[in-house]
Amino acid sequence: MSLEKFLNQAVSSWMSAEGPDSDIVLSSRIRLARNFRDYKFPTVFSSEEGRKVIDSVYESVKDHYFSNVGTLELLIMDELQPLHKRVLVEKHLISPYLAEGSTLGACILSDNEEVSIMVNEEDHIRIQCLFPGLQIKEALKVANEIDDHIEQQVDYAFDETIGYLTSCPTNVGTGMRASVMMHLPGLVLTHQLNRIIPAINQLGLVVRGIYGEGSEALGNIFQISNQITLGKSEEDIVEDLQSVVSQLIAQERSAREALAKTSNIQLEDKVFRSYGILSNCRIIESKEAASCLSDVRLGIDMGYIENISKNILNELMILTQPGFLQQYAGGPLRADERDIRRASLIRERLNLDK
């Protein structure tokens, strides 16, 4: 396995594989934050401690077999070019914080890109498992397997009353963030989502954009995740999230059915206008591309458009990001050059699927 593979292969398994309810749920993610008892947290540790943490984590996992994960590859952030790190962020394999933060950061990635162990981010370890469709419980099972194995090799910073200790107080307790990425155009078009979000927040969950905290909900894609990590077990948190997501899936399907009954020709027109733009444009900005891709994906799901894979949304939402466009171009591009290449890439991909 090489860095080039992670950079050049746009489609991770979570994007291309079918999962439960994958017409609405694009992916499920579990992230566990852990710290070593005998080292200072990454915000204040020394360079020597940072390097020891990387060595300890990699040594503990490199030769071990984890369920359906494949081999693991170590990437040192300080050895990567800024563009390479941006591509890994766009693929959801590392966080923006790790990409932009300390030179002592690292990431251990699995062959299928479903597992990413970020080292020396805000915490010593952040174990991430990313699965296609609604598979939060399955992702938790793999994350716990990796977590248990590492804990056999090192002592975690743990308090019997509070739980796992983390750099940020909002992660103390289970240290877990569970999130589901959903495509919700029906709820957006029927103006129901703004009413639903406050109710979700009252349940201890939060709705964010495609790249998490502080990001926009491009292309009607939203992340639903837990806010509470203290006072609940991992299983309870996942159960609560799964329950809310299941309700959202039902509401999204109902919204799509309502649109088909009351505004079918208008919705079909919206879908094919977006398809026409993507098929023929010569220049397109990222926001417009995301909006049109969302419409086309909805059209595929509702049967308006045939002979195009619904995974095209997942794929092109990644391929058309600035980092990927520049990676394929072999170097930096101005914004207008990216808009031209984005349009060309979308046209080419749509033609390949015909």
Q: Report how far the terminal alpha carbons are from each other.
A: 32 Å
Distinct helical segment count:
14
Radius of gyration: 21 Å
Elements, N to C (H/E): HHEHEHHEEEHEEEHHEEHHHHHH
Q: Poorly predicted ranges (pLDDT <50, ≥5 residues)?
A: none
What average pLDDT do the residues reach? 89
Per DSSP, what share of the residues sits in E-state strands of 2 or more residues? Answer: 15-25%
What's the story with the biggest beta sheet?
A: 8 strands, antiparallel
Q: How many strand elements?
A: 10
**Structure classification:** alpha+beta
Helix content: 40-55%
Q: Order of strands across the widest beta sheet?
A: 2-3-4-5-1-8-10-9
Shape: globular
Short description:
With 354 residues, the protein is α+β, with helices and mostly antiparallel strands. The chain has helices at 3-8, 13-16, 47-61, 82-90, 96-100, 136-153, 185-189, 193-202, 234-262, 264-280, 286-301, 312-319, 322-329, 335-352; strands at residues 25-34, 72-76, 106-110, 115-119, 125-132, 158-159, 163-164, 176-183, 205-208, 221-226.
Q: Please, could you describe this protein's structure?
A:
It is a single chain. By secondary structure, the chain is α+β, with helices and mostly antiparallel strands. The protein is 47% helix and 16% strand. It has 14 helices and ten strands. The protein has helices at residues 3-8, 13-16, 47-61, 82-90, 96-100, 136-153, 185-189, 193-202, 234-262, 264-280, 286-301, 312-319, 322-329, 335-352; strands at 25-34, 72-76, 106-110, 115-119, 125-132, 158-159, 163-164, 176-183, 205-208, 221-226. The strands form two sheets. It has an eight-stranded antiparallel sheet. A two-stranded antiparallel sheet has the order 6-7. Helix 4 (82-90) crosses helix 13 (322-329) and helix 10 crosses helix 11. The chain is globular and about 65 Å long. Belongs to the ATP:guanido phosphotransferase family. Pfam families: ATP-gua_Ptrans (PF00217). ATP binds at residues 27-31, 92, 126, 177-181, 208-213. It catalyses: L-arginyl-[protein] + ATP = N(omega)-phospho-L-arginyl-[protein] + ADP + H(+). Keywords: Allosteric enzyme, ATP-binding, Kinase, Nucleotide-binding, Transferase.
